[in-house]
Amino acid sequence: MNRTTTVKEGSIDRKWYVVDATGIPVGRLAAQVSMVLRGKSKPMFAYNADCGDFVVVINADKVVLTGRKQDELIYWHTGWPGGLRNVSRGEMLENDPEKLVTKVIWGMMPKTKLGRAMFKKLKVYAGSDHPHAAQNPEPLKVTKD
Q: Phi then psi for 46, rounded to 5 degrees?
């Protein structure tokens, strides 16, 4: 008789990946990175467990915004009266590229406790240097098409 096995926290083998975001459209980058963070590429994937890997995104300032996304506005509210704010994606890419990449990847993650735990395994850096060399991250191939 075959038994169904469930993923245990101790049995998960986590790897570290590094992604060079140079010249990659930000949406494609986010889609592929969120799959790795969730662990959907692994054969032991389970919706109720965090079986994803760590991802380090470097060169976030060199991602590409295709079409008219440069002029699209991102809105948020401060919580104060009259506190509606906005900024264009192009401005955010110039001023804070790490925040732009982080926001786009967060948009593709589940909005639950488990999704927040998975999201903590993401590290984004604007330049090519990162402090995670000791983990020996493997390069992750992100396709442009």
A: -140, 140
